[in-house]
Amino acid sequence: EVITVGANTTLNIQSGVVLTHVYKLVVESGATLSIASGAQLKFKSATDVEDEGPPKGSISVLGRIYADGATFTSDTSASNFYWAGIYVVNSNPSGSNCVKNCKISHCKFGLTLYNSHFEGAGNGIFLDSISNCLNPIRLTGGSHVDAIGGNHLLDNIEDGIVIYESYAGRIYDNEIIEHSTSHGGRDGLWIHGSAQPMVLNNQIRKTTQDGIRCENYAYPYLGGWDEYGSPIHGYNYIHDNARYGVSIFTGSGAYLGEYFGDDWIYGGYNTICSNGTYQLYGSGALAQSNWWGVDPDLECYDFTSDTKQYLFGDPYYQVVAPAFRYSSCEER
């Protein structure tokens, strides 16, 4: 079945509705797709159909999408059957976009943004879970997302969250765990381009490559300061990744923490330990006041990164206040 939402119209999919054998769902520019909690959409495998146009076995959004508590999956759960995913393309509606508390599984690309905006108070990417996908969350083509928070990315195949030549404001409270021996995942968070997201309270574990990878002038902040200049600690838990905890390439850097006294530590309090080769690879990181498991001089590849004033205990076991989140897509 092909479903098209025409310009200046709204399609409301109510709670309890189950749509099966969906071939394409196309939301044209100026249209809105609204999906209520409890609705289920089951898509045909992308290998079942061959044609041109919007990606097969997919949702293509050129207008606006608002989904809260829905389930998106394949008609079959077999590991070799994947629908294409949700694509938001050239979308910058006045009401912005929001995808919250949804479950996405068994697709090639869970949620992909190209030159699209999820911005404004309460609008962002706050999924419940994405599992058994090739790439769960991708921002490309100059997309702009204010918040990526509370997402559970489990047992996926390649990179967890990809920020490619796009803007992401805060990336927080996410769990990226890719532990399948058949899948394995590559990087937990891959930032390519000049993005400078604030990265807080994330768990990134058991990837087959790096916990966080920075390339092509990326510069993430694992903590920092708020609008009043007060310190914000990172509290990221980057553990048991196969190669590096944090890697820095191609003119990039990273702000992992800066010490100005016991009461003034900006960032820091990140746990980066028990990763395969090095906890920190590459130069250009300001990385004070973090926990490396042991002396960071033994654990970091390039000593030009500043790891002074390192912690002597693991902050992961301290009481950590959760990062700020909106409770609903529409909260202002």
N→C terminal distance: 37 Å
* Continuous helix count: 0
Uncertain segments are 49-53, 319-332
Report the portion of residues in β strands. Answer: 35-45%
Query: Helical proportion?
Result: under 10%
Oligomer: single chain
Largest sheet data:
11 strands, parallel
Q: Report the strand count.
A: 35
Instruction: Write down the overall mean pLDDT.
Output: 85
Describe the structure.
The strands form 6 sheets. Strands 1-4-7-10-13-17-20-23-26-30-34 form an 11-stranded parallel β-sheet, with no helix packed on it. Strands 3-6-9-12-16-19-22-25-29-33 form a 10-stranded parallel β-sheet, with no helix packed on it. A 5-stranded parallel β-sheet has the order 2-5-8-11-15, with no helix packed on it. It has 332 residues and is mainly beta. The protein is built from no helices and 35 strands.
Quick gist of this model?
The protein is mainly β. It has strands at residues 2-5, 10-13, 18-22, 24-27, 32-35, 40-43, 58-61, 64-68, 71-74, 83-89, 98-100, 103-105, 107-114, 117-118, 125-126, 129-131, 135-140, 144-149, 152-154, 161-164, 167-172, 175-177, 189-192, 198-200, 203-205, 210-215, 224-225, 231-232, 237-239, 244-248, 254-259, 265-267, 271-273, 278-281, 285-287.
